Amino acid sequence: MAKDFPTRAENYSQWYNDLVIKADLAETSAVRGCMVIKPSGYAIWEKMQSILDKMFKDTGHSNAYFPLFIPKSFFSKEASHVEGFAKECAVVTHYRLKNSSDGKGIIVDEDAKLEEELIVRPTSETIIWDTYRNWIKSYRDLPLLINQWANVVRWEMRTRLFLRTTEFLWQEGHTAHATREEAIAEAEQMLSVYADFAENYMAVPVIRGIKSPNERFAGAVETYCIEALMQDGKALQAGTSHFLGENFAKAFDVKFLSKENKLEYVWATSWGVSTRLMGALIMAHSDDNGLVLPPKLAPTQVVIIPIYKNSDQLAVISETAVKIKNNLQAKGISVKYDDRETQKPGWKFNEYEFKGVPVRIVIGPRDLENGTVEVARRDTLEKSVYQIIDIEKKIVNLLDSIQDNLYQKALAFRDENTRKADTWEEFNTLLDTKAGFVLAHWDGTPETEQKIKDETKATIRCIPLNNTPEEGKCIYSGKPSKQRVVFARAY
Amino acid sequence: MAKDFPTRAENYSQWYNDLVIKADLAETSAVRGCMVIKPSGYAIWEKMQSILDKMFKDTGHSNAYFPLFIPKSFFSKEASHVEGFAKECAVVTHYRLKNSSDGKGIIVDEDAKLEEELIVRPTSETIIWDTYRNWIKSYRDLPLLINQWANVVRWEMRTRLFLRTTEFLWQEGHTAHATREEAIAEAEQMLSVYADFAENYMAVPVIRGIKSPNERFAGAVETYCIEALMQDGKALQAGTSHFLGENFAKAFDVKFLSKENKLEYVWATSWGVSTRLMGALIMAHSDDNGLVLPPKLAPTQVVIIPIYKNSDQLAVISETAVKIKNNLQAKGISVKYDDRETQKPGWKFNEYEFKGVPVRIVIGPRDLENGTVEVARRDTLEKSVYQIIDIEKKIVNLLDSIQDNLYQKALAFRDENTRKADTWEEFNTLLDTKAGFVLAHWDGTPETEQKIKDETKATIRCIPLNNTPEEGKCIYSGKPSKQRVVFARAY
Questions:
Q1: What is the number of domains present in chain A?
Q2: pTM score above 0.80
């Protein structure tokens, strides 16, 4: 299975693409830039969704659903938003097809041209704030805390499975508040939710920060983000949370009567994560043997494989295997017992290793005699012999330990690959030889940031929250700076 | 709240529209024919989704995700499918917008015209079978049992919230099988799943049947359906399951190597239910006082309302209320304790009655002295006094009893409104004076069915499964018939 599969060192980019396809997670489709998410990949996404959805509900949010289409004119209403989002997008111009006169197929019916074109949503601020105008009249209607799970479309020129696709799946939260302070608190709260999810479920350490103006969401006053580091030393933005100020309320005329009986504009946030997280998850932990999944997001956490010579042996082994399976399931662990006779044990070992099942339990006749099983963990590939008698408790502990190990390993990797640069030369050398996060001084101007990007392809990933003040000089302009910011080349 | 709200008898259609909007379930949007599903409505849809999703997984299906867009040419590949689906649909022709030269807004960039137009999926058979071609090589790859939760778009001219909207949410199952028999068994199994869901969760009795050729899904060999009766005597198709034969396998060249080493076409099914079920649910049970929800689908099953004169009283009542709430939640019941001081008890009574919360518990100072509470059930509006001491068990029983009562009431209504017609005159009189299901003989020809539809607006809802054979004469043509079929005017 893992043949024709380059190692990370040989070709990281190819390693990722091959892994996604060979592990049956996703594939390209007949539609340019759009992916098919296969059952194995979608099962991981469903786990992500259900955990995030609970986190959103626990913080007071409700789900709703808004239209796929947005009238073209809506995009012109928020000045900076139109620049960021209304350009590369799918445009619906007609609503009917008809048989072609030559009988060779179907063609667009020119009589069915829309008066105003519809844009397939690249993000939903405009249609949602157009709707909120009717929902919000008084301070009693606030805060309005809504999330939507949806598909969105951005016409990307270069696409990569999960990381950048024309259509992708995501959630977008859109909240409305009576005060600036409440809206900022909400944006910061949702950043914490995302960071919690990344670190405690995905086992991916992240830097929490704010974006520089150049990298800010189109229409936002402040964009908060979490930034992760991949194994090739490139950064990946894993989630963003925006404080939108009164921008969309003003663009869509959304006002409320305050407790003091004054008509005021509403304060807004929006925040989202997408199937891009799948790319981050795969890239962060997997190795040259295939996928590695943190137990909390693995659709199958434990696989049990029997080794036997005949059906009598299988029957005896199955009795124990099913008992272990049931006991593990009773503890909330998802277990697959693969007793298929159509595949050999060696094939099964490779298969589940490649697909990232965290724990493999192997039971053979000799094991049974000894009251033991062989347990292999996917993250380190280590094998141990476990007594059957208290196996459930040990497997629970092992899963916890794998989850923790993956996080610690990713954290150590990030720490090793976060370096300081104090000169332009150092900065360039680090980017070209070591990659990773580079902490450097910046003079705070968009012009300098743009020049650094043009010359090195590195961007400011974020200005970390609670950053340590430090006097220094901008690596590019030499002008004074009061803190280091995080630079990296990014996905 | 229920002011300006007609009764069902006054204007059933207006009653439904007003109910959907005033109960905050959904509303029309700025985009023609597309709805916004509001949090209260979406919460019901989420309950439906989670129950159905479990049913699909319990019957061996996995979820996946396929592209929103379908190349236009795909629709021409299955001859009858193109007639049914490739006409009234949203067509994407361009992928970029630009600033207009007059600076007044944004316009479509004519340089960014797609070589081949993309259709926003009205249903996904074509793109999915194009994908399955690469997934299915051998009998070992079968059966392939996949479901997708997605949004779809059909450019409807007349739309109604939930019942018929341009964009709607649904699930679509698409399965592939080695034999005709297996595919038919799958289509029938999924019809049973839908019927089980309609009857045991929605509390809506349904007739299981097959569609006449005129009403069959475009591309299907056989369409199975469940048909429900609404309170105005009109039928509503609540779900369909299609046996697609080898039609899509042939159109997209999907073959497999059989156990006998022969290359054969794959057999297919597809099946779906949509947010239309929300319309059925609302119409089936609600009354002139507002929404009525079966407990199994009610996002809030029990509301507790305190009655008090001062904050000391409230504190004492709250102690008991919270205890009851926690005990009910421990039994898996969703409970809201509404102790808001901003609204009066009477307002709260109306609110939760209108929004269909199945059970209301009211606690006042006198109740506490007696160790009792007042319990009102939404379905019959009856009130009872319950001892607090064993209230949890009684509430569980009450919810079961409401669920059962709603089903029995709907079943009795359907039975009362299912009548036989033996002549054309009888048939017309029944349709015009009583509505409901009319069981009548039909000669089995599409021509007669079409004429009956043209003259009466009634369609054959289905030919019931396990129908009783009965010799008779077609009500329209007088030709011989061997069974009665179900006619009705329908949504």
A1: 3
A2: yes
Q: Are residues B56 and B168 in the same domain?
A: yes
B274 with B301, same domain: the answer is: no
Q: What span, in angstroms and rounded, lies between the C-alpha atoms of B330 and B185?
A: 40
Complex ipTM above 0.90? yes
Same domain, A190 and A330: no
Of B64, B96, B105, which has the smallest distance from its Cβ to A42's Cβ?
A: B64
Question: What's the CATH code of the domain at A369?
Answer: 3.40.50.800
> Residue B104 in contact with residue A134, Cβ under 8 Å?
no
Same domain (yes/no): B350, B434: no
Query: pLDDT tens digits for chain B (491 residues)?
Result: 455 789 999 999 999 999 999 999 999 999 999 999 999 999 999 999 999 999 999 999 999 999 999 999 998 887 777 777 768 999 999 999 988 888 778 899 999 999 999 999 999 999 999 999 999 999 999 999 999 999 999 998 899 999 999 999 999 999 999 999 999 999 999 999 999 999 999 999 999 999 999 999 999 999 999 999 999 999 999 999 999 999 999 999 999 999 999 999 999 999 999 999 999 999 999 999 999 999 999 999 999 999 999 999 999 999 999 999 999 999 999 999 999 998 999 999 999 999 999 999 999 999 999 999 999 999 999 999 999 999 999 999 999 999 999 999 999 999 999 999 999 999 999 999 999 999 999 999 999 999 999 999 999 999 999 899 999 999 999 999 999 999 999 99
Out of B27, B42, B67, the one facing A34 most closely (by C-beta) is: B67
Give residue B410's identity as a one-letter amino acid code: A
**What residue numbers bound the domain in which A161 lies?**
12-285
Angle at B57 between CA B51 and CA B59, to 5 degrees: 105
Interface of A with B in 134-173 (CB under 8 A): 134, 140, 146, 150-151, 153, 155, 167, 169
DSSP-H helix ranges across B37-177? 39-58, 72-75, 79-85, 125-135
Residue B72 identity: K
What CATH number is attached to the domain comprising B456? 3.30.110.30
State the residue for tokens 């909120």.
Answer: A132
A106, A140, A175, best to mutate vs chain B, most B CBs in 10 Å: A106
Whether residues A18 and A133 fall in one domain: yes
Domain endpoint, select from B406, B436, B471: B406
**Which residues of A are less than 8 Å from B38 in CB distance?**
64
Chain B residues touching A62 at Cβ < 8 A: 39, 42-43
Burial class (CB in 10 A: 0-12, 13-18, 19+), B185: middle
What whole-number distance in Å separates Cα of residue B468 and Cα of residue A96? 43
Query: Hey, of B91, B98, B99, which one would you mutate to test binding to chain A, going by the most A CBs within 10 A of its CB?
Result: B91
- How many angstroms separate the CA atoms of B468 and B483, rounded? 7
How far apart, in whole angstroms, are the C-alpha atoms of residue A168 and residue A153?
A: 7
Which of these three, B343, B378, B406, is where a domain ends? B406
**Chain-chain contact of A69 with B151 (C-beta, under 8 angstroms):** no
Angle at B486 between CA B482 and CA B487, to 5 degrees: 120
- Pairing outcome for strands A359-363 and A302-306: parallel
Please check whether residue A80 touches B, CB under 8 A. no
Q: Are residues B63 and B192 in the same domain?
A: yes
Q: Do B88 and A96 touch (CB under 8 A)?
A: yes
Name the token pair of B491: 């949504």
B5 lies in a domain?
Answer: no
Query: Is B67 touching A (CB cutoff 8 A)?
Result: yes
Instruction: Name the residue among A124, A126, A120 with its Cα closest to residue A167.
Output: A120
Of B86, B87, B106, which is closest to A72 when you measure between CB atoms? B106
Q: Are residues A21 and A152 in the same domain?
A: yes
Do A72 and A160 lie in one domain? The reply is: yes
- Residue B221 in any domain: the answer is yes
